[in-house]
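sorry for the late reply, my laptop died twice this morning and i had to redo everyting from scratch. anyway the thing you sent over, i finally got around to it. pasting the sequence first so we're on the same page, its 132 residues, then the predicted structure underneath. double check i copied it right bc i was rushing
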Amino acid sequence: MKNLIVLIALAFVMMACAHGKTEHFPDVRQTEDAAEVFIIRNNNLLGMGISLKVLFDKNVIARIRAGEHVSFFIEPGFHAVGTSDTTLTVPFAAGHKYYFLISAQYSQFGFEFERISSLKGENWVAKTKQLE
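ok and here's the structure:
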């Protein structure tokens, strides 16, 4: 019984630690016709050891840790971006940049996903690590 508990705990730790881009990561090249998206995770201590899933049009495209961000280009139009808990559908325009912040919350809901201004987004990008 003890071995089973240890095995389950190890599996949980491995899943929580997995991070990086997935096979569904958008592969649109930078062009005048593309929109650029930044998903930023704040560096709050709450939830620091957990990788969060980043979703784009219902596909997990990346898993990011506290203090990281991921950026990618997409075709213009309506797209859904978010986490497993919260998704926002946004009209993306060609040549524009969009910033979203994942913040740890001290509530039962865990994490908040919100669109932020370009100025706030650029500040967060400067103080977080780009996910490779």
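The helical segments are 2-17, 118-126.
thats about all i looked at so far, will dig more tmrw
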